[in-house]
Amino acid sequence: MTQKILIVDDEPHIRLLLAQTLEELEDEDVEILTAENGEEGLAEIQAEHPNLVFLDVMMPKMNGFDVCHAVKNELKLPDIFVIMLTAKGQEFDKQRGQAVGADVYMTKPFDPDEVMAKAREVLQLPG
Questions:
Q1: What is the CATH number of the domain that holds 87?
Q2: Whole-number pLDDT of residue 40
Q3: Residue 41 has pLDDT above 90, yes or no
Q4: How many domains does the chain have?
Q5: Whose CB has fewer CB within 10 Å in the chain, the N or C terminal residue?
């Protein structure tokens, strides 16, 4: 069964970097999807039910906190693992991320090895 990873970030270079970091998972039956803003990301989540979402916080139309809250609390999709990515590493932001249901909070710039390791762990793929 194909697993899906959704990358939601308004910065094209970040989407590309994440997609390139994770592309080797495509050999293990993982599909990589992207969205350019929170609104589009939420629509993709509803349509595709990805296993894992890398979600930027600061985005136009709908921020990552609102998207995560909608996924976890309104759509009631607790099985979707949400990793929030942000340039803001303050404790307040981490607490807000946890409050809306984020599973993991990573700060930018992120370590590609850490991103890959986390994706493999979430999708239960061999390391």
A1: 3.40.50.2300
A2: 98
A3: yes
A4: 1
A5: N
Domain of 27, in residue numbers: 3-111+119-123
Structural Rg of the chain based on CA atoms: 13
Amino acid identity at 64: G
Cβ neighbourhood burial of 30 (10 Å; 0-12, 13-18, 19+):
buried
The pTM of the full predicted model, rounded to 2 decimals, is 0.95
The angle at the Cα of 30, spanning 10 to 110, to the nearest 5 degrees, equals: 45
Distances (CA, A) of 47 to 63, 97, 109: 19, 23, 29
User: What Å distances lie between residue 101 and 83, 96, 97, 107, CA to CA?
Assistant: 10, 9, 6, 17
Q: Which of 59, 61, 81, 58 is nearest to 71 (CA)?
A: 81
